[in-house]
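Entry type: protein chain
Record version: 2
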Amino acid sequence: MSYRILVADDSATNRLFIKNILHESLPDVNFTEAIHGQDVLDIVKKTDVDLIILDLIMPVLDGYETLKRLKKDERYKDIPVIVNSSITEIKSIEETLKEGAVDYFTKPLSTNDMAIILPLKVKNALHMHAQNEIIKGLNKHINDELKNANAFANIMLPKSNSFKAIDLFIKYHPSLGIGGDVFDCVECDGKIHFIIADVTGHGIAAGMASSMLKILYRKSIEKPGITPGEILSDMNDSIFRYFDFAGKDSYIAFTAFVGIIENNVLSYSNAGHPYPMVYQWDKKEFLEIKQNGFIVGMLCGVSYETEQLQLQKNDFLFLYTDGLFSAESGNDITGWDRVFSMARQLDHELTTNPEAFLEELFFAFYMFHKSNQRSFTDDVALMLLRLK
């Protein structure tokens, strides 16, 4: 493999000296030369460079400032830089290493430096750069795949304007481009079937599990007269029926809230999911749906209760996943209390602009985590249904 090394030094003798040393041990290297820092910046704009050997004391633009500018530029920050100078103070060495130089050597070079040390430093820097370029390429490929997967996941989301009995509003924020949060909504035979679920973990594996979960859900609701509790039981049993987890370190488990709306009556069942809320239009107030059950996929043969709630025209049903209130370093499993409080503060947005309600609620929690120096590390899904 051929490499290109940029040697920056205002002394032509020094540049020739360094090239001659490296030619002995690196015959496949091509060299480019610069006499000051501005030359370096101009060259890297036009030429691919694998390593820069940079003198600190140069005219026009010295090595210190050149290093700083290189490391602040996204295009060039990954080019390894070995600094060389006749300055031997520890402070100078420390400063350049803090600015991002990968190594340092001083002039004049000893016989041992010329024969072993400098060639070895250069070989290590070039090898590191080559490995980093491979990793960058792989990361780009993975990110491209995640974008494609996310685009596919968005296509599979329920369409907001496709229902006769309800208006549907959703917001989805996967942590890694694709995630394990699931929501689905189906209208058939005068009923609205819906689910919101959260697969354990996030990322590609959780995204694959969530796709399978949606298939299991669609298959369950095809059964005539099935209740939400029976849907959860059926999905739970299907996981153990179709997949052999004996002796495995990984499994598919998820929290979920499943509901059916028929003639303004909500039938529902909860499997360890954060409490949803109903906004009662006539009373102008929120009501939490406090029901709970065992997480799906943890234990075979679990049964789930189905309860009912009378709804009215224009009532809202708000559902969400715990990624909204869970964040890095945050272990508060009762965070739905904050969601309930914030939702009440935003009731005007809910009744006038439901999409703005979801956006503002999400943003409020984003800012809450940011102010506490925490970040979203889980997928976030918000789902809002309004009865027509």
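Comment: The first helix runs from residue 12 to 25.
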